[in-house]
Amino acid sequence: MIGHRAIDKICIVGIALAAVLSLFLLAWSGEPDSPQDPDYAAQLFDSDRVHTIDIQMRDWQGFLEEAGEEDYAPCTLTIDGEEFRQVGIRAKGNNSRRLTQEYGLLRYSLKLEFDHYLDGGHYYGLDKFSLDASFQDNSYLKTWLAYDMMGFMEVPSPLCSFVWVTVNQEPWGLFLAVEEPEESFARRNFGEDYGQLYKPDYRSLQAENADVALRYTGEEPAQYENIFRNAKFAVSQADQDRLIEALRILSTGEGLEQAVEVDEVLRYFTVQVFVMNWDSYLGRTGHNYFLYEKDGRISILPWDYNLAFGTYALGMEEPIQDPYLLINYPIYTPAEGEVMRNRPLYHQLMQVDEYFARYREYFSELLTEYFASGLFQVRLQQMAERIAPYVEQDPTAFCSYQDHQLAVETLEQVCLLRAESAAGQLAGEIPATIRSRQEYPDVGVDTSGVDLRDLGDFDDLEQAREKQQAALRRVMGET
User: Fold this and answer.
1) Cα dist. 308→28, 134, 146, 293, 452 in Å?
2) Contact 126, 82 (CB under 8 A)
3) pLDDT digits over 321-357, tens only?
4) How buried is residue 136: exposed, middle or buried, by Cβ count under 10 Å (0-12/13-18/19+)?
5) pTM > 0.85: yes or no
6) From CA 117, how far away is CA 119, in angstroms rounded?
7) Rounded CA gap, 89 and 77, in Å?
8) CA–CA separation, 420 vs 363, rounded Å?
9) Span 352-384, pLDDT tens digits
């Protein structure tokens, strides 16, 4: 007979074998891979602390002098004490890069690419990230906050975290590390079987740029050059055909769910409209977004918020200094009619009663669960307290520490007033369209205590030049 102890051992072995077999069958079940957090999410993008990055370059001054060319150069990065060699680095940005150069400043936003010089190079699975310099953002928090809101509304968004940057072991400043939307981003958000990713952008702002606005203009791929030349992955004829067909369906305003991830897009526009960002798809430039397409359905993804919260107004009739106009800006028609009619991804969805009602529901959700609940203030204050010691010693900051503190207070005030105005618009108490705002210009929340210039102004740039030059001299060993 088999003893009790032997039986126990047999049972334990049997249970273990069954568990292993179950895991094996699960792994080979044929189910598609689902999105999951990669290793780098728990490393550099652990947002519960400020990380450290040291950029090692022999001629940092020469690199800055050539920054306007946006050419890559090799460097060594030490991220939280771990070294990575032959990383590609270049300056990034459009207007911010140009203005940094024009003002004689040195604090550029940067792009870091691990596989630029090394095939297969990566940081815990990450191929590329950027360091945002907080240009015209004295709070340092606008981009972080916009992505936090997007994440709250379950919009696929870049990971980000604050980083104390040194160059050759000398302090350079506090930056925001942002995951670049490329292969790693797509895999994290959409799984291994991800679709196509584009960053539509114009060559010239004076051109029509119908493709950047996602307008259908015909069947030929050449008519969408501003989209396809900015593809993040190799594009096939089939990829082009699917996207063009999606734009054709979008142009009709009918059967939109065949061509648009409607729910996700509505969530995106909820935040986009709230943060008053007109350097975007809803502005005259029509850019600063990513376009994702899978199986013929498109969605729009967030990007670039340093000029959000009312600090950009290209082409608007009223000056940017008018907080009353901006904070009370209509949430149903967030741009003039000419712009709206040429932005079909927003305009066509809002013509459908079901989608418009859902948009209102998402706005209510954002206002109730993110703002009225107190979550917003807790999140903002926690991050502001975390970065404050680093801002105070930032040698290349665009502003003084006192100006930073004022900007944080102003950002909080702007958001709370914007939430109050949006709630009033949803309730029908404050004009929610441009037409009704013109009819009732004096109905809105009081913004008399707000000066949007406190979030970041050109005067700050003039004052930053000398200290940035001093920081460079320290890096170059001249002081």
Assistant:
1) 46, 12, 8, 26, 11
2) no
3) 689 999 999 999 998 888 888 999 999 999 999 999 9
4) buried
5) yes
6) 7
7) 10
8) 12
9) 999 999 999 999 999 999 999 999 999 999 999
95, burial (CB in 10 Å: exposed 0-12, middle 13-18, buried 19+): middle
CA 368 to CA 363: how far, in whole Å? 9
Q: Give burial (CB, 10 Å; 0-12/13-18/19+) of 311.
A: buried
**Dihedrals phi, psi of 45, to nearest 5 degrees:** -100, 25
Cα gap 26→226, rounded to integer Å: 43
Q: Are strands 196-198 and 170-179 parallel, antiparallel or unpaired?
A: unpaired
Q: Do 403 and 388 contact (CB within 8 A), yes or no?
A: no
Tokens of 59: 């001629």
Secondary structure, 3-state, the chain: CCCHHHHHHHHHHHHHHHHHHHHHHHHCCCCCCCCCCCHHHHCCCCCCCCEEEEEECCCHHHHHHCHHHCCCEEEEEEECCEEEEEEEEEEECCHHHHHHHHCCCCCCEEEEECCCCCCCCCECCECEEEEECCCCCCCCCHHHHHHHHHHHCCCCCCCEEEEEEEECCEEEEEEEEEECCCHHHHHHHHCCCCCEEECCCCCCCCCCCCCCCCCCCCCCHHHHHHHHCCECCCCCHHHHHHHHHHHHHHHHCCCHHHCECHHHHHHHHHHHHHCCCCCCCCCCCCCCEEEEEECCEEEEEECCCCCCCCCCCCCCCCCCCCHHHHHCCCCCCCCCHHHHHCCHHHHHHHCCHHHHHHHHHHHHHHHHHHHHCCHHHHHHHHHHHHHHHHHHCCCCCCCCHHHHHHHHHHHHHHHHHHHHHHHHHHCCCCCCCHHHHHHCCCCCCCCCCCCHHHHCCHHHHHHHHHHHHHHHHHHCCCC
